[in-house]
Amino acid sequence: MQDKKIPFFIRIKKAIFNFDEYYNFALEKTRTAVFYYIILMLIVSLIISIAFTYKAYNTVNVLSSELEEVLPNFKIENNELVLDIDEGMVIENEEYKFAIIMDQEKTEITDITYDGALLILKDKIVLKYLDINQKMTYQELLKSREQNTITKQEVFEYLNSNKMVGIYLFVFAITILNIFVTHVFAIFVYGISILTLLGLLISSIFRVGLKIKAVFNMAFYAMTLSILLYMIYMGINILMGFELKYFNLAYNGISYIYITTAILMIKSDLIKQQMELMKIIEVQGQVRKELEEKKEEENKKEQEKDKKGNTKDNKEKKEVKKKDPKSAPEGSKA
Predict the structure, then answer these.
(1) Residue 210 in contact with residue 266, Cβ under 8 Å?
(2) Same domain membership, residue 193 and residue 157
């Protein structure tokens, strides 16, 4: 079957609102369904990355003025952090659930209980937020500078300058790549595969007889609403800190409902097609019977007509014989 050229956003609309369309989705080539899924995940990753980058921009602007007064004097020299205090320090922000941790002795910190944290460690800077975990060593940071040092004053001057645009673009690019790669494989492994198995089970129970390729195609479209709701939820969560405790259950439940409903709709359509086929066969039988009866009647009429014709001919022959008797034989005259 040749795939219909359906615009991407029309596919989204049909995948959410039109269960009858899932039969056509099932008949498509698998690469069409996979391509649809990849484009959808790119859009989702783009939206989430925009929300995250805006949150990072807003957080930097709000906190930079506060941090300039709170943070101790420090500098990065010879690719290492040097503080004016002997011990490390933690600065928390309850509103953003974010923390800045400075420690000139440690190279790694794993026990973080915040939604996000900026770790300024002995040899590197680490940004952790949700699924983001980006690192940059001081050597990488200083390689483009003529001097081998960075002071606190220079850091805050940089934070308040237009040069931060490049940092935000970098954060945006890394975020979209990270989210896309992580979520594409995570949803594929834990979402599409489970949906396919569930679909095959439901198809077997209700005797729909769908092949694995058909169910696999349908699984990509059945995830549509769940993925879009996830995008909205993540955007709200990043920007406002709103959390929904049982969102993952609802997220999975919606896709399960979609694949189940789609298969049952296909089952219903198949039953309707069978009933229509039976009606067609029944009508064809009646028409055939009527034609045979009509033909029999015509044959009977023909036979009756032939009988009447033969009877008439016989009568005419008899009348001719009566009117024209046989001539006397020759030699009978005197």
Answers:
(1) yes
(2) no
